[in-house]
Amino acid sequence: MTNVDRKAVAQGKELYHTLACDSCHGLDAVGSTRTYAPTHNHLRTTAEARIQAADYTGQATTAAEYIRESIVDPKAYVVAGYQHLRFGMASYARLSEHEVNALVQFLLQQE
């Protein structure tokens, strides 16, 4: 990948922990093995596949858009097998554009 903003990636990783994303999502890069919510390992590849799937209900057309959509409007598409959770993912639309961008940049690195 070209033009990786390393500072944004580092900020995204910090936010990922601060927002407790790792308390539900598994992600090797932060040492989380949680399985309450879909894994974030290989998220770029997973996102690209999800937006092409027949059951995709969101509006994203790229992996970055899918990740952003999942952060600010997690109900746009709920991953199969996670629709009936008692508590779904909360929207993080309250985050600043800078914070959302940092999370997106960090999660895009999880190829």
Describe this structure in a few short sentences.
The protein has 111 residues and is an all-alpha fold. The protein has a single domain, classed as Orthogonal Bundle (Cytochrome Bc1 Complex, Chain D, domain 2).
What does this entry look like structurally?
- This protein is mainly α.
- The chain has a single domain (about 5-110), classed as Cytochrome Bc1 Complex, Chain D, domain 2, CATH 1.10.760.
- It has helices at about 5-20, 45-50, 65-70, 95-110.
In DSSP terms (H or I, runs of 4 or more residues), the helix count works out at 4
Structural class by helix and strand composition: mainly alpha
* CATH top-level class: Mainly Alpha
Morphology call: globular
Provide the β-strand percentage band.
Answer: under 5%
CATH topology: Cytochrome Bc1 Complex, Chain D, domain 2
CATH level-4 homologous superfamily = Cytochrome c-like domain
Mean pLDDT: 94
Major sheet attributes:
none
| E-strand count | 0
CATH architecture: Orthogonal Bundle
SSE order, as H and E?
A: HHHH
What labels describe this entry?
111 residues, mainly alpha, Cytochrome Bc1 Complex, Chain D, domain 2, 0% strand
Strand-helix topology:
Elements: H1 6-18, H2 43-52, H3 63-72, H4 97-108
